[in-house]
Q: What sequence folds into this?
């Protein structure tokens, strides 16, 4: 159900869209910052972005900024200029570079207070002032402004946390060029000689209905391993999950134990496991499945536990493990341990073996409706057809759902991450208030081109009620770790081949491959794409979507697109 973004995107299309017209690139008003920003984001997903490449982007963004100094275009150029300078400073370690980045973030926040990333800019400047420039007073001002002007921003609580630590810090003891910001620093007074170890800063438990989430906030990346201990109890499982944070220790003053009420999670304990690691133990009254996800910027581990094995996956929940101290493989449930070596290659993005297919919507969320069809049914039929085609072509296929079940959007990519899928493909049907609109289009994740598009996509995405700036900020964070460029290549291949297949039989409109901040794609660590198979609100296309033959032909096209993408990356990696 992507009705509203479509309406918006339609504004950028020529007034008349011919049937079976050639791809008409949907040009938003040009912002000279778009191209360098995109390259920055691509660059930062790579391991070793060079200082030279960043300096070049800096120059380009400075030019973009002076070309469009007002409005959202100027805001975007300014913010990403600051981000570029921050990346340069991280690499050079020069104070001058940190000053420059702080100034540009400041300019962004002050000149464009309504820009979605204005709170980010404040947080960045405050963090730089605190950690790099020995300026706790300046930092304090930034964090207070952030809280005052943007109380609903998720950064407001980070700012509050940082603020509470500032009085304890003394300017001379603030240092640490080795920890990436905006990771909040622990109070300097808590850093003792023995304490260059990562710190577990906070443990945040939350029960919600049939699931429970525990978030562990750390001040830098750590290696970790985890294990589930289960006790059979009737049908459900009661049990315990523990996670060992290697080389980390709890922040002084962190509570070592907490009771939790209102759900399946009952109790959490934090204790040193040995000289070198910290163990967090969580006890549950019922435990059917669980998942551990690592998130960056700042680094945190999210432990989700489910009362029942409600997350429908092609693989069973992790098997019970006996109590032992043998290290489990990092970040891999026991069941997938054998695949570790292969996974390593896959994580480097060098292969396409495992594809997770996501049937859009489901259960209480029917998606779009039209001509007697419900989107959730079409997407499920397509998922199964596409899965069959891909299996025939030798791929390993996983599904987010194979039945009519509701799965939250954010769970879908988490699942793909947890199962180490190489590609994530979400299938949907489009909808419009204009019954005349029809055609095929494919999306990959990116910032939308206008603030309006962000707002619209946010509303469209809001199964949960994330506010708009949340979405945009979550996105900028996630974009730095997601595969934007690869996803774009994938979407391009899917659109091209899907269209070619369908056009053998039907005249199908080509809406091209597009970029927008769709929540269902966020956080995917693998290339991901969303295919809008056709308009359920168009009589002709609804009739086609009703038939398996249309879906089969499209599935073959999508499989060709995947093949094309696979060949592309294999070419890169071939010797
Ligand atoms: Zn949909």
A:
């Amino acid at each position: 159900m992507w009705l509203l973004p479509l309406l918006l995107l339609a504004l950028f299309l020529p007034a008349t869209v011919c049937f079976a017209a050639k791809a008409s690139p949907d040009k938003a008003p040009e912002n000279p910052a778009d191209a360098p920003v995109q390259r920055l984001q691509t660059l930062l997903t790579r391991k070793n972005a060079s200082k030279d490449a960043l300096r070049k982007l800096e120059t380009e963004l400075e030019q973009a900024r002076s070309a469009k100094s007002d409005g959202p275009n100027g805001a975007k150029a300014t913010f990403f200029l600051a981000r570029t300078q921050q990346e340069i400073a991280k690499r050079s370690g020069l104070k001058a570079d940190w000053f420059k980045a702080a100034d540009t973030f400041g300019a962004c926040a002050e000149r464009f207070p309504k820009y979605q990333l204005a709170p980010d800019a404040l947080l960045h400047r405050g963090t730089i002032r605190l950690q790099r420039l020995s300026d706790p007073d300046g930092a304090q001002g930034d964090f207070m402004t952030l809280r005052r002007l943007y109380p609903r921003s998720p950064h407001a609580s980070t700012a509050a946390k940082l603020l509470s630590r500032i009085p304890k810090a003394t300017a001379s003891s603030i240092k640490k060029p080795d920890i990436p910001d905006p990771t909040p620093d622990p109070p300097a007074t808590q850093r003792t000689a023995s304490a260059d170890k990562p710190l577990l800063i906070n443990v945040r438990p939350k029960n919600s209905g049939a699931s429970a989430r525990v978030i562990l906030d750390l001040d830098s990346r750590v290696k970790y391993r985890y294990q589930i201990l289960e006790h059979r109890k009737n049908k459900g499982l009661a049990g315990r999950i523990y996670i060992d944070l290697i080389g980390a220790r709890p922040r002084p003053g962190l509570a070592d134990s907490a009771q939790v009420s209102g759900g399946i999670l009952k109790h959490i304990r934090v204790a040193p496991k040995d000289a070198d690691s910290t163990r967090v133990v969580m006890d549950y009254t019922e435990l059917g499945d669980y998942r551990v996800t690592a998130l960056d910027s700042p680094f945190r581990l999210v432990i989700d536990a489910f009362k029942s094995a409600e997350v429908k996956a092609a693989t069973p929940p992790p098997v019970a493990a006996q109590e032992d101290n043998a290290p489990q493989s990092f970040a891999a449930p026991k069941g997938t341990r054998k695949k570790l070596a292969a996974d390593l290659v896959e994580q480097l993005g060098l292969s396409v073996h495992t594809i997770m297919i996501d049937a859009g919507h489901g259960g209480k969320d029917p998606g779009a409706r039209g001509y007697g069809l419900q989107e959730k049914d079409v997407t499920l039929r397509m998922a199964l057809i596409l899965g069959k085609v891909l299996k025939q072509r030798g791929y390993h296929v996983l599904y987010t759902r194979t039945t009519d079940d509701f799965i939250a959007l954010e769970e879908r990519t988490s699942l793909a991450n947890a199962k180490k899928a190489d590609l994530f493909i979400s299938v949907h049907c489009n909808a419009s208030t204009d019954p005349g609109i029809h055609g095929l289009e494919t999306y990959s994740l990116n910032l939308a081109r206008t603030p309006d598009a962000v707002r619209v996509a946010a509303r469209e995405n809001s199964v949960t009620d994330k506010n708009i700036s949340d979405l945009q900020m979550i996105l900028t964070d996630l974009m730095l770790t997601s595969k934007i460029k690869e996803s774009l290549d994938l979407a391009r291949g899917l659109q091209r081949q899907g269209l070619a297949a369908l056009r053998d039989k039907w005249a199908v409109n080509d809406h091209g491959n597009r970029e927008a901040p769709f929540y269902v794609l966020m956080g995917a660590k693998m290339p991901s794409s969303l295919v809008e198979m056709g308009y359920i609100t168009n009589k002709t296309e609804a009739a086609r979507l009703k038939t398996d033959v249309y879906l089969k032909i499209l599935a073959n096209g999508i499989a060709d697109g995947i093949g094309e993408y696979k060949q592309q990356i294999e070419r890169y990696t071939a010797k």
